[in-house]
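ok so for the tutorial part 2 we go from a plain amino acid sequence to predicted structure tokens. step 1 is just haveing the sequence, like this:
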Amino acid sequence: MNTSKKILIVDDEPDILEFLSYNFHKKGFHVATAINGLEGIKKAESELPQLIISDILMPELDGIEMCKAIREIPQLKLTPFLFLTAVNDDYKVLYAMLSGADQYVSKPIKFEYLLVMVNQLIEDKKCLVNNISMQ
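step 2 — the prediction. this is what the tokens look like for a chain of 135 residues:
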């Protein structure tokens, strides 16, 4: 298995976690999961994923507040963050993006589309990090 691509998926729906974990595993990703924002922050700190996928509406701590907290952690500050959620309210989308997210995708979604977005965000971060280290 190619563990060079490590992602964290945070969602309070077990079916979503299982579906995404299974499909990303099949594509060679190492996948960590969490069921709410508080657990998501802890897993992000311990796993240091290359990308985080999160729902917005969750118990304990919602995805927006989790994203804000993750952006305050130095080693996770530049980690790509993608919201995958059923929330479609324009103001909520704007607020989610202003919280530090890199991308916002509405459920339901085709997995292949999500996979392309995830790979692109990871590659974009690699280019950013390489440019920063060359300066």
